[in-house]
Design goal:
single chain; mainly alpha; 2 domains; 0% strand
Length: 189
Amino acid sequence: MVSGRILTVPNAISGVRLALVPVFAVLIFRGQDVWALGVLALSGASDWLDGFIARRFDQVSRLGKVLDPAADRLFILVTLIALVWRDAIPLWLVLALVSRDVLLACLMPFLARQRYGPLPVHFAGKAATFALLYAFPLLLLAEWTGPVGTTAAVLGWAFAWWGLGLYWLAAVLYLVQARALLGADRVTV
């Protein structure tokens, strides 16, 4: 059950994750990759932890349903900007990922007008975020020379392609869900 509570352990964890975004940005732009990867790993672990605690201890909240994906999106965005800045990934990948979020953001006013909140997260969306949050640290490691860099590049691009595909699959699922909700309202009026 989703509550209106604000002060929960999962929300505090998500708040810390949000606070780590600028720390990560400073580290990555200063070239302190090991520390940046550590912050990213901590963020990934805490992302899993806040979801586990929320479900296990019945602390799922409306605020948490906004904070958690916001932290994910901000980490992804900062990492994308840093990787493009370093020429580690092409700009088209950033545009493909950001355009999906822009498309879904355009749905929000229509859903809000009908008093719908954020759409429930689909498994495809969670899997896409998981894949992308693995892809970007690996693509950062791909800048290293030797076997570590080569292996990281192969794995990083594999996760990036899977993440991109799942990200857009999730977008299609959200569009279908929004269309069904908005269409049902039109029929009942």
